[in-house]
Specification:
Length: 171
Amino acid sequence: MRKNKCLGLGLALLALSVLSIAPQAKAQKLGLGVRLGGYTSGVSGKYYLNDNAAIEGIVGTSFGRRGVQITGLYQLHSPALGMANLQWFYGAGAHVGSFERGYYYKHHHKHHNGPYKEKLTTVGLDGIVGLEYQITEIPFTLGLDFKPFIDVNGDGVFLFPDGALTIRYMF
């Protein structure tokens, strides 16, 4: 139940963040959808500041790690491969997360045998690179990305490779 409250709070914060900047930006393109990935699967909101830049917020979880992570990214976009409606993007950002310690680590890790229910707070930096295709007949985008991130917590510094397929409805 506690995880559901954290996820609900994260979704509300993501929605408020995206909506609060919407009137200030010139472009009126907002996409909301799901990110289906490795370490970060969840809800994704992307606001296009103009044709070349966007901000993305992700409220996600890694189902095996029993926790929630909130990520913010700034991205630059450019046409890709000479194809209409296909763009490549790259960017960087940061995240904060909360997990149950015993589920955060893989079985072979030295910290895995700690108290399972103890909360572990993480902060870190994220990078992202990917391709995104805008389907013009229906208001959807499909994206494929690689988003490695560095987690810092009381036990040390950890690097995680992460990739995903993202599907968004465009407003």
